[in-house]
Amino acid sequence: MKHAYISRKGESRLIIIFAGWGMDHRPFQGLERPGYDIMAVWDYRSLDFNARWTEGYDEVAVLAWSMGVHAAQACHGAIAEKTTGRIAVAGTPCPVHDSLGIPQGVFDATLANLDEANLARFMRRMCGGASGYKAFAGRMPQRPVEELREELAAIGCRVARGECTAAPPFDHYVATMRDSIFPPANQLKAFEGCDVVEIDSPHLPDFQALLDRFFIDKSLVAERFEGARSSYDANAEAQALIARYMANQLRDKDSAAILASPEATVLEIGCGTGLLSRRLLAARPAARMIFWDIAAQAPDCLPSGSYRCCDAETAISGLPAASVDMIVSASAIQWFNSQLSFARRALHALKPGGILAVSTFSRGNMHETAGASGHSLHLPDAGVWESFAASQPCVEKIHIGGFPIVCRFHNAMDAMRHISRTGVNALSRAATGARSVAARLLPDSDGRYCLTYKPLFIILRKKP
Fold it and tell me: Most buried one in 16, 64, 132, 160, CB count within 10 A?
C-alpha cells in the first residue's frame, strides 16, 4: 500500500481517502478541508497500512471509495483508536459479488482482458462518459497495467478466501446512482438497513463536495459560536426548550441518585453559554461536575476549575474505562463527525449503571434553510439510534425520541438574523449572502417564515 499527502498544513486532524482500484494520488489533487490534512492511500496488492502514517494526529476521518471500502474495513484496526467519521462511497465491503458488489463475471472479464485499451474504456465508464473522462484527463493516475492486473488479482483472491467484513459499520453509505462499475442496485442491497445517501453521480464522484458535506469544519464551529456568545441566550429559544426538557429527564430516580452522590462524576459535553449547565447546578448536585466545550471562554455560571476547552469528540477517548457516572449533552454532538462513535466511547467511559443522556438533531432539521442555501448537516434519525442501542450488549435504552420545535419570524431576514445570533450558521465558509438565502425562503400560510428544529433525545443506561 502506498500513501501521499494531498493537503498538509500541520493540522491536528487527518482525512484519509482510501482510493479505488487503479488509482494513485493524482485524482485527488487540489482537495482541501479547513482544519484537516488530507492523505490518499492506494495500491491494494497488499493491505499493509502503516499506523505511523497517522502519528501526530488527534483525529482521523475516513472516506473510502470503490475498492477502498473493502480496504478501509481491512485496515481499520490500525487507526481505530483515533477514527471518528467513516464514509463509504460507491463501493461495498464485499466488492466482488453478484448482488452485493461487482458481479463475478464482470470482474473476471476485466481481469482477463486488462490492457491499455480496456483500461481506457474502464476509466471512461468510471467517469460517466466522454465529457467526464476529458475532465479527468489532467488527474489521470499513472501506474503500469501489469501493476493494476496484480492489484485486481490480489483483491479477487482476498474475496475468494472470504476476507470481507461489514464490521465496523460506516457512519454513512453514499450510493452513486449513475454508476457503471458498482451497480447501484447492488450498492443499495449491500447497504440495506444502513444510513444511505443516494447521489446523482457516476462511479467517480465529486470528492470535494463529499468532504464538505460529511466532515465538520470544527474551527468554524468554534468561531461562529464564539461570535454569537453575547447574543445566544436571547435568541436560542429552541435550544433553551431543549435544555429544559433534558434537565427534566434527568430527574428520574437513577439520574437524581448520581447527581446527589458526592462520589459521582458528571461530565457535560458542549456546555456553550450554560443553558443546561445552569439547570444542573441549580439542583445543587453533590457530584463532581466537569464541563467541556470547544469554545475558549467558559460561561460565568460554572464553578472555578471545572471547565476544559477541548474537542470533546476526540477528548472522550482519553477518559479511562468506567471512570464517569453520567455524561450529558444538549444541542452539541450534531457538530461531531460521528455521533455514534462518540456514543460508543462515552459508554466505554461510563461506570456500570451510568447514564448517557444527549440531545442532538434529526434528519430534516432546519430544512427550510437547507433547501435555500444548499448546506445542511447529515444527521442520523431515531431509527439509526434505535439500531445502535440494540447493537450494544451493555446498554439499556431508557428513551429515544423527539419532537419538532417551530420558530416563526415576521420576515425572512429575521430568520437569518436568528441563525447568525445563535451560531448555527457553521456549515460553510462559502460567502452565501444572508439576503440571497432569505430571498429563497418561503412563507407559511400565515405569512410567517419558519425554522423547524427537530431535536432528538437519547438516554441510555450502561448495565450494571
Answer: 64
Query: Which pLDDT tens digit goes with each residue over 239-295?
Result: 999 999 999 999 999 999 999 999 999 999 999 999 999 999 999 999 999 999 998
Distance of CA 63 to CAs 20, 239, 373, 417, Å? 11, 32, 24, 34
DSSP letters for 416-463: HHHHHHHT---S--S---HHHHHHH----TTS-EEEEE-EEEEEEEE-
For residue 373, the surrounding DSSP H or E stretch is helix 367-373
Strands 350-361 and 455-462, by their bridges, are antiparallel
Measured in whole angstroms, the distance separating CA 31 from the mean position of its chain's CA atoms is 18
Residue in this structure with the C-alpha cell 481506457, named with its chain if needed? 120
What the block records as the C-alpha cell of 373 is 442555501
Three-state secondary structure call for residue 35: coil
State the burial class of residue 263 (Cβ atoms within 10 Å of its Cβ: 0-12, 13-18, 19+).
exposed
**Angle between helical axes of 237-249 and 275-282 (0-180°, round to 10):** 30
For 376, half-sphere exposure in the C-beta direction (CA atoms, 13 angstrom radius) is: 19
Output the DSSP codes for 7-20. E-S--SEEEEEE--
DSSP label at residue 334: G
Pairing type for strands 324-330 and 265-269 reads parallel
Beta strands 36-42 and 13-18, pairing class:
parallel
Strands 324-330 and 395-402: unpaired
